[in-house]
Write a structure and sequence with these properties.
By secondary structure, the chain is α+β, with helices and mostly antiparallel strands. The chain is built from 4 helices and 6 strands, in the order βββαβββααα.
Length: about 160
């Protein structure tokens, strides 16, 4: 529970109910975007999907609206533009579900790489990420990249007793 936010504003999935400007309902000048926000509308009665595109578009709209506020202009409501979905499903395999166009396989995988690389900020970052991706692809690196919680000292003592 977040202090200062009416528990009635916490909706399905622990999301915070917002208006069409991403302002938390009933709290002036407090905003929520992305996965934590639940903005209900006709097309998305349970809130927008929890994907990066929604968060990025909300951030863009909110930034412009804050500038509008500073210049005493009227805010514009957030309208989500669904550009489609993509996912990698294995080595050199992906699926792409774009408006009016669906494809899969190697071409979809290349398209996924391109789209994600273009969303990285800075030429230097794009270059190094591209080199990393190529290294992992060409070297068949299968590292899992797992994050594992370290045991506390008390847990180690209990394990020793077994």
């Amino acid at each position: 529970m977040l202090n200062g936010i009416d528990p009635n504003l916490i909706v399905r999935g622990g999301r915070i109910s917002t208006d069409e400007f991403n302002e938390v309902k009933g709290i002036k000048d407090v905003f929520a975007i992305g996965d934590i926000a639940s903005m209900e509308c006709k097309k998305y009665p349970k809130g927008h999907p929890q994907v990066a595109q929604v968060a990025m578009q909300q951030a863009n709209t909110l930034g412009k609206n804050l500038l509008r506020d500073l210049n005493s202009k009227t805010r514009k409501p957030f309208v989500y533009g669904d550009y489609g979905s993509m996912a990698t499903i294995g080595r050199s395999k992906a699926v792409a579900d774009l408006p009016g166009f669906h494809f899969n396989g190697f071409f979809a995988w290349l398209f996924w790489l391109f789209v994600h690389l273009m969303n990285i900020l800075g030429v230097k970052n794009k270059f190094f990420i591209f080199v990393d991706w190529m290294w992992y692809y060409l070297s068949f690196d299968q590292s899992l990249r797992l994050v594992i919680k370290q045991k506390s000292p008390d847990e180690n003592i209990e394990a020793d007793k077994l």
